[in-house]
Structure formats: C-alpha cells, structure tokens
Amino acid sequence: MSQDRVVVTGVGVVTPLGCDPEMLWARLLNGETASQTWPDLLAEGFPVHRACRVTEGALEPDPTRRGRALTRIAVRAALSDSGLSPTGRTGVYVGTTMGESGVFEAIAEGAELRIDEGVGSVFANEVASTLRIEGPLRTYGTACAAGNYALGAAAAAIRSGAVDAAVAGGVEPFSRIAMLGFARSRAMSPDLCRPFDQDRTGMQLGEAAAFLVLEPERQALSRGAEALAVVAGFGLSGDAFHPTAPREDGSGMAAAMRACLAGSRLSDIGWVCAHGTGTVRSDAAEANALHAVFGDSPPPVSSLKGALGHSMGAATAVQAAVAVLALRRRVLPPNANLVCVDKTLELDVVSESRAAPALEGVLSCGYSFGGLNSALLLGAP
Amino acid sequence: MTAYVADARSWRSPRLQRADEAVSAWAAETLSGIGSGAEALCVATLDSGAWESVHFWKTGLASGLAFANPRPFPWTLANSPTGRIAQSLSVRGPTFTIVGRADALTAALDHALLELASGRARRVLVAALDGITLEETRLAAVLLVDVKGTENLAIVATDSRPPWSAIVVHDTASETLAAVINRLEAAEFVAVGNDRDGWFEFRPDR
Fold first, then answer.
1. Is the CB of A184 inside 8 Å of chain B's CB atoms?
2. A11-34: buried (b, 16+ CB within 10 Å) or exposed (e) per residue?
3. Cross-chain CB nearest to A136 (options B41, B65, B196)
4. 0.90 surpassed by pTM
C-alpha cells in the first residue's frame, strides 16, 4: 500500500466549448454557453431541439463509433499533456451512462450490429487496443456520477499498488435515446439551462469526453512531470429512495460529500463544482446537502451545465478537468446563464469569473438516477 | 485482502418483458433473502440497459418521438437495476455498477473487498446480472462479510494466478458467478479472474 499522494499529471478534453483545456477554460471564464438549436433534432421531431454538442475536432462521422472517437482524442491529449508512456501496469478507468448509444439506435432501426458493440466497456477496450495498454480495464456504468467513480477507483488502485498509473475519466457521445427520454420526461429546459437560477426550467443534454492521467507523486517527480493537482478525497453514498428523484433533504448527497471530505479541513474547500443540473428539485436538494455539510456559509458554487450541457457519464470528468484548471489559475469559472440566483437556496453562486488566490481545494459533485451519489476532492499540489 | 462468503445464490428466470418489473421482482423476492443488511452493493453486468435502450428507441420511433412513453427511459441506464436493488435493500453506502464481461465480476469483487478492508462496509452484496429482458435472465449473488462466522460458505481472497484446474471461465459475469456458487456448494476450491485485473480464490469454509 503506497502512502504516496496521487497526483494529476495530464488533462485531455473534448467538449462543446473546445477540444483543448485552454480553449475550454477561456470560454468558460467568458460565461459562454454551447447551447443551440439543432435543425436535425427539429426535423426528426424531437420535443426539445436545444443541446450542447461537439462540433470541432477530428470527429468520427459514423454515429456508431462517435463515443470511441471522443475517447481516443481525449485520452491521447491527456497522455500528451502528461508525457506518460503507458506501461503494462497502467490502468484504464472509464465512466459512461448510455455507452455507444448510436449502436443501440442503429439496431433499433434495423442495422445488423451486435449489442455488445454498444455497451459501455467498448470505450476502455478501444483505449487498450489503440494504445496497447495491458493493465486493468474498468467501466463504471453509474450514469451522471460515472466520471467520479472512474477517477476515484483509479486513485484507489494507484494507492493500493494495483497499478503504476491510470488514465481515468468519462465519455458520453450525443445520445438520441437520452435526448428523447429526458425531453419526454419533461426534465429538459426548452431554452437555456440555468442552474441555481430562480427561474430554472430544467437540464440540457450535452456530450463530451474528459480524461486525466493519475500517478503517484513520487513517480511523477522522478520523471520530471508536473503535478497539476492532488486527488485528495472520494466519497460515495446511496439514497435508497427513488428510481429518479433525489432525497429532498439532500442527505444522501451530503453523505457522499462527508465521506469525501473525511480527513480534510472544510475551510480548505474554496469552490464547489456542483452537479447543478438546472432542475428545480435536484438543485434544491444539492443546496440542502451543501448546507448540511458546510453550515451557513458553503464555499462559492458553480455548475458547468449551463455552459456545456449535461454530458452524463462524462460530466464529472469534465468537472474534474476544470477543477484542475481552476486550482492552477486560482480563478473560479462562472455559472453560465445565471440571471437571478434562487435566494431560497442561500448559496454563493459564482455569477462572473472570480479570483480565488487562496484556493486550495475543489469539491466536485455528481449524482445519478437511482440515488447514487459521488464527490471528488481535488487539491492544489 | 480477505473476506468471507456468508451466503450465495443464483437464479435463472424466464423472459420478463419489462426491466423494471424484473428487477423489482428480484429485489423483493430473491435478493432480499441474501442481501439483507448489506451496506454496499457491487453489480457486474454486460448488457443492463442495452436492450432497454434498443426497445425504447424502437418504440419511440414507432409512436412518433413527440408521443414516446417516457416511463421505460430510466431503465436504459446500466445503473438502474443497481439503484432499484439498493432501494429495496436500503443500501445507503457505496453502490457500484461495473460494465463488462466476466472481467466485470473481478472488478466487482475487487471493489467489495476494498469496501470491507476500508471499514466503509461490513456486509457487501456482489451481484451479477445479464439478459434482463432476453429469453432467459441470469442473476447470481454472494454476500461478503468481514468477519469469520460458523456458517460462512467460503473464504475469498486476492491471490496470484491459481492453478488452472480451479479457475472458472465463462463469458459473462452472471454465468461465472453462478459457476463459482455451484463449485462452492460442492465444497470445491474455485478461482476467478484474469491477469489484467487480478485473481480471487474461494476456499470452502464449512
């Protein structure tokens, strides 16, 4: 068992606001949103036509391989940023919600594809085969918390000595199945997603991939790699309450946060990168959880989902990537599309980019259908 | 790491048309008998949510997207059975849904033993399920505990590669775990795993 700290040495992203971290960061600080109306969704008869989709980068035109392409691009970028050459003891840890959704859609439309070409494990297999990685391959199908699961599991595997390094994160290609499901469930905003706003009307679907390279600090230092951040905590809990709704008091979310923060000083947490889907109930439950954990004055809070949409299995991995950038620059990105904060939540929602010179820790949260809650703590190196 | 198998069962059920009905029935009628008191849940599956995704899209196209029935949508997600089982068993600790073939079972066992070793849980239910809405639904589960008891079925431990004669190899997690349970019921030494993810051996303890 290694007592060495687990550090982040590389970040790779593919998002609707940019396919490199610097571009993404600049556009987040500007308060931009990738939300737009899509003619194809309108033509196909979707009840909601707005979404945040990736439009740049060398994307795979075949929709049944889109998620694998997003994965390859983000993983290669993370490894390039890190300078790490994967060895036989490098693990691959991937979170996803819908898997390669285009395969399921194609099968439903009559294509002769095998169902296992669409299940979530195809992404880790793709990384292993293209990069010839021989270490453990793990796929966490834990919906909107999946990226956190992958990152937390990777850090634990490094601490236990099971692997020497890991590529960990999440991926979610645009899913028509999810677009239909959320729209027909009336969970989606017809215009912009406005997390923590008093007039928030729902979520917006996104797509993304984000991967981080994790390794023991001593190994990173010995090969001359820069530690960008420390994986300082990870916590999980279950609501055991409802198939889709969270506990209104946020007690399940709070349990994951407390498990994550055990051993850390609450005063070191300078920003919460919130789940913040923009739905009335989920944002309210998350606010309750933050008050239960931090008391009357939780740290400043932003959600990235107004800017990027909800990329489900990739969402918490994107949050982790942005948390690393925030720790590096000691700046908090704003909660895009905020017009008038919901005062009943009693949160300090970041409305414009804000300098945070003393930022030492970022709590990144994600919760999934079925009440599966996660929290990840990233610290300054 | 070491833990103990307190109980183990496997089931095969005929085709169940709807995933929510299938999983609710298992949770209430079968898993409750083995998973009572579980504080964490590790589920391994290859296709949970996959066939439901195909069905949801097909019926949505047939009805017209504007009129699609949203009720089955949550079951297109791989983790929905995990959430439903956790709700039924009141599991408020960590819950994992690991997607893959037999390697997903190895990962689930790994997470279960880590939860026990860390003290975060004292009883962990490891379940494997596949083919939820296919012709035959397969489910197998073992309850792992952190203390040796007089009625424990087996000791489970991580190990280097065991002898080939002990290794159970099947395609899916549910088939593999069911085979493990069969061997344990015959009081045989059995092992699962692979060189990527590690090995787990089960030694009869009765």
1. yes
2. bbbbbbbbbbbeebbebbbebbbb
3. B196
4. yes
